[in-house]
Amino acid sequence: FIIGSKYLQLKKKLEDEFPSRLDISAEGTPQATGFFEVTVAGKLIHSKKKGDGYVDTESKFLKLVAAIKAALAQG
């Protein structure tokens, strides 16, 4: 399985918003569209694997950005 362009676009968008602040990982899987996780300061903020789904709408993206900002504010 090859990690797709949607992942790369989302990763770039998040990295542009939060340069050098995030740990974004993805894993291609044969039985699903893959896993996508965002970690901030060691805390898992978003996990497709754990039920958060894929960030495929602007509202989901804004929710993720808000969660990242909150995690960064907590330090």
Order of helices and strands: HEEEHH
Mean of residue pLDDT values: 85
* Main sheet makeup: 3 strands, antiparallel
Strand order of the largest sheet: 1-2-3
CATH architecture type: 3-Layer(aba) Sandwich
CATH fold field value: Glutaredoxin
| Structural classification | alpha+beta
Low-confidence blocks of residues? none
Distance between the termini: 35 Å
- Radius of gyration, Cα only, in angstroms? 12 Å
Shape label:
globular
Number of structural domains: 1
- Strand portion, in percent? 15-25%
Number of strands: 3
The percent of residues in helical segments reads 40-55%
Q: Count up the helices.
A: 3
- The level 1 CATH classification is Alpha Beta
CATH H-level homologous superfamily name = Glutaredoxin
